[in-house]
Amino acid sequence: MAQRPVFDLDPASWTIDIVRLAEELAVAARDGRLPKAIVPTDLYGQSVDLDALEALAGQYDVRLVLDSAESLGASYLDGRKAGTGGDAAILSFNGNKIITTSGGGMLVTKHKAWADEARFLATQARDPAPHYEHSTFGYNYRLSNICAAIGLGQMEVLDDRVARRRAICERYHKALSRPGITFMPEPEGQRSTRWLTALTIDPAKAGVSREDVRLMLLQHEIEARPLWKPMHMQPLYAGAPYHGAGVDEALFANGLCLPSGSDMSDGQQDEVIERIAGLLEETR
């Protein structure tokens, strides 16, 4: 079975651990088993370390494909936009993203041959013939003109939506920061969209667990969700090699995403804050 390495997260950014990745690439190069590609993920609106990843990809001549599904509108260092690096980047316009066409997404690449091949495969891999001719299998991944127009229209308010999500995160931060509550860090020089406001709850210091807060909110019909479950913990990848110290596992055990929609009103957010603050006060 092909190996599916899974790398740990950097506690300073909650994105891929560059130091550990560099160590593993060095070992892989020594053993003659370099991967075909590095596929890091931007998380909750925050870009990965593009400069470091591009340097490593270049050093080992490995392709770099960025999963930037969650970071449209975010900025890396010096204003460089998330999703603009590597050999290719993937953006998502799913229904829960800042810009949505109800589904679908975008592939961004600096390689024309890659773009041409992607278009070919996404349009049923139809050969250039007057009849339907297929030399290989393809997919029907086209985005309709109507859905694309909806997405283009929303691009005009992308900056406004990013500003609103950041303001929501800042209100949560000011209202709920206390011992045991830690918000997702933002590396110096970067500007996350704060697509979702994510935090961790240390039960020993806060007096309540992540699940205590989540279930309490659910009782009031307020949805909050745990952080993404690490890939190596998914049944699909049971037995896959894991390279890490458990940072991702700890984040999953204690992490929570709070309601953060761009159209969330201050009143709605106040209710979330008041209910969480009230639960925290009860346990003091």
Key features?
284 residues, four-stranded antiparallel beta sheet, alpha/beta, four-stranded mixed beta sheet, 37% helix, Aspartate Aminotransferase, domain 2
Describe the protein in words.
- There is one protein chain.
- This protein has 284 residues and is an alpha/beta fold.
- The chain has a single domain (9-104, 143-282), classed as Type I PLP-dependent aspartate aminotransferase-like (Major domain) (Aspartate Aminotransferase, domain 2, 3-Layer(aba) Sandwich), CATH 3.40.640.10.
- It contains 9 helices and 10 strands.
- It has helices at residues 18-31, 50-60, 112-122, 145-155, 158-176, 203-206, 210-219, 247-254, 266-282, and strands at 6-7, 37-38, 63-67, 88-92, 105-109, 181-183, 197-201, 225-226, 242-243, 255-258.
- The strands form 3 sheets. The chain has a 4-stranded mixed beta sheet with strand order 2-3-4-5, sandwiched between helices. It has a 4-stranded antiparallel beta sheet with strand order 6-7-10-8. A two-stranded parallel ribbon has the order 1-9.
- Helix 1 (18-31) runs parallel beside helix 2.
- The longest helix has 19 residues, at 158-176.
- The radius of gyration is 21 Å and the shape is globular.
- The termini are far apart.
- The model has no long low-confidence stretch (mean pLDDT 94).
